[in-house]
């Protein structure tokens, strides 16, 4: 079942969570589906609570009408009403038995049982907390930044051209803008605040939200140096809340803080996203990763024309009768996509093996592995000895790569959720990381190669971006990507820097096989030169130049 991120975000918005969660849900669609099931049970308990209390209210309303009718009848009769012994009996019964029943019913804690069960669900360790809500909003902002989405379309439930029919209200937009400002994304914050202002409805909520929007707009416009817009926003804020000494004081402080170059009539157009860099313009690593994920950086047809597709048969005799389908995506460094190399029956076994074993993914820090917003997914490691299917997969990887799998790491499985991603990184280890003892089994050497299996299709987003190669792999179920992480000399190849692009909609399951360099010298021998300093083509070109100089 597919959970678009906006739908899941709304689910989180309406859950008031007080407990501290031991797991994370925004980083895994698999975990979110569990929570979604819990909410169904919570709704049933809420319905039971309402039903019990509705019955109580219906009974009290009926008694109220009955007592009022009898009193009105007594008033009409006057003193003659009490001449009837039946009426005397009815009044005494009403003032004793009937009112006691009413008193008991009002005092009774109707709905206590479903309320207790509801609280039990809400306080489960497996329920999300407020940190999860921030994670969900962070995922939305990441999608907006990386794929250059518009806040207006996102608030209308349109994600990268697909309409999911989910609307956000003004309050949701303000919450997203507030987090964007906190995380220093003033452009995105400004776009969400303008959308919040457009979505304001009348009534008390408008009166409460309008000042909040203006206060946040002041902050965004100041960071974006829109001085005229900032001044106009301050004036509007003071106009709707003239009694606020804080606004007046902040405005005076703002005027005093302006330098001589800042003019109040100076206005800058505020773009929701920074312009796409021109060819040759310097960009940072995250920009490069984002531009590759969004498809703005890609190889030209001319650069792709020498790439080939074909069948691999030479690494094992078995492949003569069952060759592997290979698609070349880059030649130097080698990047290959193998098609149909894992089967649904194997994926079913993997899903059972990973059930209830996923935890928040970590990255290698200075002294330890740490949770980071650079990597929002859930993962687990399983040794090859856990099931024969894993051994079968390793044999297939050996056939695909012509590498020895004896010293491969444990199988890693990962699931990506709301905006789930893994920012740009290299799979190989820096020497400082090895020296600090932050990797397991350092005697097995560095990661010579990676094989990445795609265990699911992804509705939108979720590709694997190689910024330096300007190549984006779209997830395709049953396929696997293969690349060398190291030069033949054993030096880490920075060109293999890659990242998992954010999930827009759907669930992404992958399997990583990281192969270590020990006992691979006969499979991938060194070159006669240091290939980390020069490629074979560069060596040939240098040789030709030397021959030409010698001939002259």
From TrEMBL:
Q: Name one GO cellular component term.
A: endoplasmic reticulum lumen
EC number(s) given by UniProt: 1.14.11.2
Record's signal peptide: 1-22
The protein's required cofactors = L-ascorbate
Q: Where in the cell is it found?
A: Endoplasmic reticulum lumen
Fe2OG dioxygenase domain boundaries: 407-517
By its UniProt entry, which Pfam families does this protein fall under? 2OG-FeII_Oxy_3, P4Ha_N
Q: Which residues form a coiled coil?
A: 50-77
Q: Report the domain of life of the source organism.
A: Eukaryota
Keywords of the record, alphabetical order, are: Coiled coil, Dioxygenase, Endoplasmic reticulum, Glycoprotein, Iron, Metal-binding, Oxidoreductase, Signal, Vitamin C
Q: Extract the GO molecular function terms from the UniProt entry.
A: iron ion binding; L-ascorbic acid binding; procollagen-proline 4-dioxygenase activity
Give yes or no: UniProt keyword Endoplasmic reticulum.
yes
Please give the Gene3D superfamilies that the UniProt record associates with this protein: 6.10.140.1460, q2cbj1_9rhob like domain, Tetratricopeptide repeat domain
Q: Does the keyword Lipid metabolism apply?
A: no
Q: Which family does it belong to?
A: Belongs to the P4HA family.
The UniProt function text for this chain reads:
Catalyzes the post-translational formation of 4-hydroxyproline in -Xaa-Pro-Gly- sequences in collagens and other proteins.
The entry's protein name is procollagen-proline 4-dioxygenase
